[in-house]
Amino acid sequence: MTEEESAYVIRPPRVEDVEALGAVHCRVWQEAYVGLMDEAAFAELTPERFAIQWRRRMERMGADGHHPNGEQVAVAEHGDDVVAFISVGPARDEDPPTDTQLWAINVVSDHLGTGVAQRLMDQVLSDRPAYLWVADGNDRAIRFYERNNFRLDGVQTTDRDDGLVELRMVRR
After folding, report:
1. Beta pairing class for 72-78 and 100-107
2. How many domains would you assign to the chain?
3. What is the domain extent for residue 57?
4. Contact yes or no for 24/18 (Cβ under 8 A)
5. What is the enclosing helix (H) or strand (E) of 171?
6. Which residues have CB under 8 Å from 36's CB, separation 6+?
7. What pLDDT digit, counting tens, does each position of 53-106 carry?
8. How far is Cα 150 from Cα 134, in angstroms, rounded to an integer?
9. What is the number of other CB atoms lying within 10 angstroms of the CB of residue 85?
10. What is the CATH number of the domain that holds 115?
11. Structure pTM?
């Protein structure tokens, strides 16, 4: 592990992280999805809206980052700041290619390329078979997933709420 990678603490989220998680989640979406999702939906992205979602999730999440629905969450801290998170859980689609889904991995742009996303992936998902949905046009994310043995399988969908075109990637 490089010195830069060791500057990150990977841990389960805490209730006091809700506002920071809302800010990180919002910022990453604003950085990654500009021009890729419906303009009206994009304009409605706020840290407060994401924090509300995180607060609801945290109400039932254990201190170990596990939720009764099977989700596991970990955050990456740099100094005193939450700068990334990962969420992995059971498949949420009707006909999933695997039982496990990478629900999200979000890293603020200042910390891209530092190895923190890889550490999150290694610690929470490891090398288990899984699938994920990635925004069409998010080439950096697609390359990251390909380095982790995920492959585009030709399945595509358009999110009904935000118009984001998503591509499915699978690792078996």
Report:
1. unpaired
2. 1
3. 3-171
4. no
5. strand 165-171
6. 135, 136, 137, 138, 164, 165
7. 999 999 999 999 999 999 999 999 999 999 999 999 999 999 999 999 999 999
8. 11
9. 25
10. 3.40.630.30
11. 0.94
